[in-house]
Amino acid sequence: MEKEIIVQPDDLYEKRYKLRKSGKDGVSIEVTVPRIILEYEARKHGLSVGEALERFEGVWKFNNLKGVYLFVFEEREKKP
Fold first, then answer.
1. What totals of helices (H) and strands (E) does the chain contain, helices first?
2. Residue 47 has what pLDDT?
3. Using CB atoms within 10 A as the burial measure, which of 13, 21, 32, 42 is most buried?
4. How far apart are CA 53 and CA 39, in angstroms?
5. What pairs with residue 22 in β-bridges?
6. 40: left (phi over 0), alpha (psi -120 to 50) or beta
7. Residues of the chain whose pLDDT is less than 50?
8. How far is C-alpha 16 from the chain's CA centre?
9. How far apart are CA 29 and CA 20, in angstroms?
């Protein structure tokens, strides 16, 4: 199922962050998530920032890599 997300440029905040290599031989790239984003997500779920850090993980969602990517917070899977 395709879902189109339309965002008006006037409705956006813009914050730029340096990209950092991580993992063996720089296999991954890290970028900072603005704290205000995590604070908002925590409040939405009635959590403190610390609780949200423990409960959620950041997930990149993308398909054909044409230039738009979506970063969301999702609950971590519970380890058995």
1. 2, 4
2. 95
3. 42
4. 10
5. 28
6. alpha
7. none
8. 14
9. 5
